């Protein structure tokens, strides 16, 4: 942890913001730094993951150095950042991850983060819930196996029997990042599966609702309003089950 | 107003365009500069707002300096640009606004626009239509209040009782920018509410149709074709009402 | 063709990737370079077009120089790259094309590609299938002609009676790029029309399925999963017809 417990103000950025949109600089300080990040519904560590996932999903490199520092300040480990980017390459596209890395590299260098601190490329994997994975695979195979054999195979082998089992980032945090990326990119069709998975992995309903609130600022109100009915449906179906 | 009444050609850009895609340079000059911007269905001032909103919504900083200059040339005031960016931070995400500001800062500096020309951070607000806002708030609260109390509160306090009432940009122009951003980002689910609001705020049907036409070039034909059925529905429902 | 037959490793990029996310560097080499691009379902030339279309649709300039070189290495002609960018200006928005050109210019300069090698700005056009175009135009005019006369006119005159008939890129390759851009941008509503057109223009079902698989890596798994039911519907309707 650095000696900064509140979000850093990005000095250069806020000076420019004040020169063009002083009201926006004021909203940033009063509402995002001074209010949103202080809300107890979601920890600052989780907000760091949610924000980075949103920026990576939206290919917004301008905020990556600031929020990488902030996430590290709030307890996300370098090895978890490394896994987060790797995970999001699959869920937001390879170039989004590569662009984020270009912007993160300076932060890792400034903080003298050594690659030896990061997880091994091929670690021992977490145990797989074979029953749940067999059900998922059977469902996807029945729907898409004949038309898209390559996708079905890659999805099983690369994602659910490899990426999700890497120990460098907890399944709950992978889910938090995945759901955040989906909402931030407006991809609500994929939210039900991954939000259910996130809540199975330990994300509470109050935390999930606050993820949407947090993302309203970082991805814009329309993304939050498009997500809310879908997220609410998941809440209701789980309550009824 | 500068002495340029037609869209400036971005000298460096068009040279590069000619080196890689001379046909595209030709389309740009013949169809965008020479045709689209000359169409009477929408003023050049409005086209400036629509284009900037689209670029900000799509995080396309490369065109921001050129189109900020163009909007200023066509009568959008610096204080309105400032408010536009502030408004779009809420509707397209904070980083989109910050990225735009980084690209606008040089234009403001080159034109010696002083922050004193911009609107106060906390001006006296426009009067609120309490009845309409009470209806909006009740509807959103009924749908989302229990699951997303933070979103419902922020939406009322920050957006409809604050941002939309700031006097630096007319409500009709805020609506024009909001609808443009939604269409340019492919967020058609939020178009009906905001297009109705825009037309209540004075945007005509012919102008709204031309916004879609204008955005076909700046956001691509698929965004326009995805918006058309939704926009047409709003037109028809208002005609039937 | 250069002397490189396999995808070039972007030296600077992979060094940065290894410093921040060594596992992602490993996936890139093992799964994308070593596996995906080697799959026989789609030629490397087609993969070059698909990848460039995805990057342009997503405004991801970081990968443009590498993949422009790769496409050229695999047999896409400079004149075809030039037409591809021109085509995608209409299908992904003008700024996406301009941003791509800024990133491509250096590649064209390094390879000493002369503008004289590119297609004429106004070439003799391919013959038009007047019957099919009359049907398309009548359908769009019936749905949108009254509300959006400008869009209907531009769509006929600029797109289907001009752009699509330019000889610099085969109709099948224009379709391949268009479908790839739509899937990569999450614009599935426009996929049925353009996928049918692509298959009419010679894209096979196996190739179309592999386009989705390829794009899972470059645009992210959620884009592929959102596209699959829509693409599958087209396959089934064509099989039933």
Automatic annotation (TrEMBL), chains A, B, C:
Residues 33-105, 149-233 form the Carboxymuconolactone decarboxylase-like domain. Pfam families: CMD. This is Carboxymuconolactone decarboxylase family protein. It comes from Telluria mixta.
